[in-house]
Specification:
Blueprint (H helix, E strand, L loop, with lengths): L15 H8 L3 H9 L6 H14 L5 H9 L3 E8 L15 H15 L3 E8 L5 H9 L4 E5 L5 H7 L4 E5 L8 E5 L1 H15 L4 E5 L6 H16 L3 E3 L10 H13 L7 E4 L2 H13 L9 E3 L16 E3 L2 H16 L7 E5 L2 E3 L14
Parallel strand pairs: 1-2, 1-3, 3-4, 4-5, 5-11, 6-7, 6-8, 8-9
Antiparallel strand pairs: 10-12
């Protein structure tokens, strides 16, 4: 685990962070005023100048170097997916990712930074040079769900600050994620112990996703420990998309496999596809197959039946990712951390609950 370090200070012991706090503006705004870059608003310039005078702040070389090097741009890179069959427009509706990115953008603008968005295909062999190109245009990067392997992240972090979302922790970056294992263990026990389902399955996300792997292991271990049989057949490999969930149901039924009594999906979007595919084949949720998700996207509560899921603090993930990246960029934080945000099991009707136990 890393420890915090102090940002560059001038000979008075003050830093440009002290100036920003006293003026009530962002570090980027102080940078613009001190270096005469762009054209800050008159009110902002006067507030910074007043804070500098009141504090007796004299920028030295380190402080000027910090403010001079800022591009005031952060990059966000996500995996690009392609819809399939009945969900052909799915690449335009990433839901969970979109919500996170919106919060990153809001947090960035609040600090005077702009956002540069980019994407790489799941199977893109040129992902590393593409992301390196984005890095050259930014002060730091936020990478979604393992767009790069840990070794590549470490190499990239030699050039720029890196925060991963649902990635693999490295000594050179900071990873931000939700509590996968605790929530999935609680869900497994609920399905097996409280509902008495004898057979369960986990319908996976991307095979190399750290979040997916953690959820799969925790769910299967807890389900078996509670006395259920967990179907681990490859047919239950999905891709975090509704199309992948529907394809898994089609494949299982085409092979004549008996469906498990409950299916825990890697995320809510997968659950959408599973519920659609089951309904088309005349199967009822939860009477024939209980279905659960992960994330608690806004649509989850409006499905029929409403979706039992695990709520992640989606907006907090985005805000935290930017705040941590900003602290890395400005030297206020060392890499090598993993920040785990709490998750909550939300009980609704799709698992077999009567709807009165759940949360809105």
């Amino acid at each position: 685990m890393g420890t915090e370090e102090s940002p560059p200070a001038n000979r008075t012991g003050l830093t440009i962070y002290d100036v920003a706090r006293a003026a009530g503006v962002s570090i980027a705004s102080v940078s613009r005023v001190l270096n005469g870059r762009a054209n800050p608003r008159r009110e902002t310039r006067e507030r910074v100048q007043r804070a500098v005078a009141e504090l007796g702040f004299v920028p030295d070389g380190a402080a000027r170097a910090l403010s001079n090097r800022l591009k005031e741009v952060v990059g966000v890179v996500l995996r690009r997916v392609v819809g399939d069959g009945m969900f052909t427009d799915e690449e335009e509706n990433l839901l969970f990712v979109d919500l996170i990115n919106r919060e990153v953008e809001i947090a960035a603008h609040g600090r005077g930074f702009d956002l540069l968005m980019s994407s790489v295909a799941v199977t893109d062999r040129m992902a590393r040079p593409r992301i390196a190109g984005v890095a050259g245009k930014c002060d730091g990067l936020i990478l979604h769900d393992r767009v790069l392997a840990p070794s590549d992240i470490s190499r990239l972090a030699m050039r720029t600050s890196v925060v991963t979302l649902a990635g693999t922790p490295t000594p050179d970056s900071v990873n931000v994620r939700g509590d996968n294992a605790g929530a999935m263990r609680e869900l497994a026990r609920h399905l097996v112990v409280e509902h008495g389902y004898p057979t369960v399955a986990y319908l996976a996300g991307h095979a190399d996703s750290p979040d997916n792997l953690a959820r799969a292991e925790a769910f299967a271990d807890a389900a078996v420990a509670a006395g259920a049989t967990c179907d681990r057949d490859p047919v239950w490999q999905g891709n975090y998309m509704a199309g992948g969930g529907a394809a898994a149901i089609r494949a299982a039924m085409a092979a004549g496999r008996p469906l498990p009594r409950a299916i825990a999906c890697a995320n809510d979007q997968t659950a959408l596809g599973v519920m659609r595919a089951l309904a088309e084949r005349g199967l009822r949720v939860p009477e024939d197959v209980a279905i659960t998700g992960f994330d608690d996207i806004p649509a989850a509560r409006h499905l029929h039946p409403p979706l039992t899921t695990i709520r992640q603090p989606i907006r907090q993930l985005g805000t935290t990712a930017f705040d941590v990246l900003h602290r890395l960029i400005t030297g206020a934080l060392r890499p090598g951390l993993e920040i785990v945000l709490p998750t909550t099991l939300v009980l609704r009707e799709s698992c077999g609950c009567d709807g009165t136990k759940g949360m809105p």
